[in-house]
Records
---
Amino acid sequence: MKLLALNGSPRKKWNTATLLEQAMKGAESEGAETEQINLYNLNYKGCVSCFACKLKGSKSFAKCAAKDDLTPVLEKMRNVDAIILGSPIFFGSITSQMKSLFERFIFPYKSYDLKNYYPNKIPIGFIYTMNIGEDVLAGSAVEAHIKLNELYLNFLSGYGESLIVTDTYQFEDYSKVDMTYFDPEKKKKRREEHFPIDCENAFNMGKRFAHIVKDKSLLAQ
Ligand SMILES: Cc1cc2nc3c(=O)[nH]c(=O)nc-3n(C[C@H](O)[C@H](O)[C@H](O)COP(=O)(O)O)c2cc1C
């Protein structure tokens, strides 16, 4: 069983990357092979509306015809047993690299008639990290954005799951940053007390995904 983790944060060792690593460890604890790719190491664009993926009878039908650093990643996303995406929230949505991947991954498989050409039924998870707390998230545009992404992933693979990590610790040293909106002490406390729980939830997501891959009947639950 192979699980692919895709980090959509430009930071390779911070919240999102740490949570993805925990998810990978969870999957590995059940014998899975894992791989993490940092999307910000790659050079690619989002969908360019060429519609090659929609051309009836063409070689590129239901495939992204654009060729760049994302091409082998999309190929892997077609062949692995489970995927976990991770992205911080930037200005209310996933980061630009993750958004570009989302377009290139989903659009070729989803027809205008809502036919689904993704060949697999696999678990796909999405770990979101953000500065705002649960109170601000509730009922917000960010929450709606997350629900919409979950709908797309569910449509495609039959199993989309979100792990939402709020009120993250953003800077090594808050005293150096021009910002008074967040209380550094509260952030530190949250980091110490709650982030370990977030990491455990990520670990359990990876572990659960490995179980689902072993027993596909769990996909229906
Ligand atoms: C350009 C930029 C925009 C951001 N916009 C938001 C936002 O709209 N809402 C929010 O809650 N956090 C926002 N954040 C904070 C990040 O989502 C948060 O710190 C996240 O945990 C960072 O992930 P990382 O530690 O993996 O890099 C923003 C951060 C940056 C750099």
---
Amino acid sequence: MQRTLEPEIMDKEENVSAYAKADFSSVNQKFVDDLIKNYPNLKNVLDLGCGPADIPIRLAQSLPKVHITAIDASKKMIESAKQAVTKARSNNQIILMQAYLPGLPFKSKIFDGIISNSILHHLPNPNVLWEEIKRLGESGAAVFIMDLLRPNSPEKAKEIVELYSKNEHPVLKEDFYNSLLAAFTLDEVKEQLKKADLSKLNAEAISDRHWLVSGIL
Ligand SMILES: C[S@@+](CC[C@H](N)C(=O)[O-])C[C@H]1O[C@@H](n2cnc3c(N)ncnc32)[C@H](O)[C@@H]1O
């Protein structure tokens, strides 16, 4: 099945609201737990496409000394993230910024960790993500990037949606389906890493619907 793009920036109220209300707790907490298990000494982390900031909040709560810069191109997502960060009392650890990738307004090589969940499938040109990671991560920085795996067929995508989000809001289910169709296969991700001269990073399938790229720059 070929990749079908979905809208890049999530800036419609109903999509942002459905996404912010959805329960991603187990997947997001596992992402944070695995990150910390592998890279326990992170100090200055960048989260690309942070959405409603559930992952940065969990990371801040798990590592009280970490500082996180979390960016998203969507004004509405950043507004939602600001409310969540304030509610979690994590303002002292998390800076939120509306910013578009590529061309993020940061000096080169300043972060010791770059994380992201579910941004790659939004990008028309996936190379943009890997090039920005190379530019912004200091030498030795930890990279921890997760996204969806594109299934073989629309039928398989529908099956995955029903299996994991049966009782979620219809808008969220439709977004999930479209995201699966816009996602990359593991082979495509490996090819992107090769092209970006990042083959030293490890790319693996970590569930029936997710891949993870991790390693050190
Ligand atoms: C599916 S959400 C993932 C949110 C969050 N990382 C999470 O795990 O819940 C993807 C986010 O990436 C943002 N995004 C897409 N393209 C972007 C770009 N080029 N620059 C910055 N943010 C982008 C979207 O606006 C959206 O909020």
---
Amino acid sequence: MELLSVHEASVRLSAQTGAQLALNKVSLRIAAGERIALVGSNGSGKSTLLRLINGLLLPVQGHVHAPNGLSQAMLFQRPHMLRLSVLRHVALGLWLRGASWSAALVRALDALQRAGLAQLAGQAARTLSVGQQQRVAMAQALALQPALLLLDEPTASLDPHAKREVEALMEDFARSHPQAAMVFASHNLGQVKRLAQRVVYLEGGRVLADLPVADFFDPAVLQSRSASAHFFTQGELA
Ligand SMILES: Nc1ncnc2c1ncn2[C@@H]1O[C@H](COP(=O)(O)OP(=O)(O)OP(=O)(O)O)[C@@H](O)[C@H]1O
Ligand SMILES: [Mg+2]
């Protein structure tokens, strides 16, 4: 079952002039249950594509098709914390989606416990380290139980221990929500292998490859695709 599709969409960001595009005729279909990794070098358009999917950007050409009421949650590359305690910060996200405040607090605490962050519940969200903020943002996104979970470099600023924990949260989500889809941007090829079924490779705002993960990492397929071969040599294998 298709959850969302992008058709020949081009995006020009406000500061971009002339012919320069952040995304250039990108097409993508996302089906229920899929786990898709977006890979490509800095500036290739991963974050822009996630924002387009999430409805935060409009294409100058092409379109995004999503059913009314598709619930999405997005974890941004740079977490943004409100001037609230961690617990209230997470609860606010739930309240904004219609939960009563008391139910939101209960679910927020539960989400923090699952993410191993209960001890931070009373702390001011803005005083957390970037890695802690990232994990709180992850807990908040998971608490929404979205049908489509979008994650922009969810482990980029995490230490190895926290990285494993966040990957475990991603796996838990995929396992416990088999009908939900997860799209994540990553520079970490090990993570892509561990978590993705399908890899979308971007370069200069274009999709140059959209392959099952096994094919993307298959040397025989790689040889016939200079794009992914190039990425392979640049990529981080941790
Ligand atoms: N606010 C902005 N205004 C103008 N151009 C932007 C803006 N944000 C990003 N861009 C440009 O859009 C293109 C795509 O950027 P994007 O952030 O989507 O790349 P990315 O693949 O997420 O990179 P990274 O790996 O560094 O996160 C780049 O050329 C970038 O310079
Ligand atoms: Mg990015």
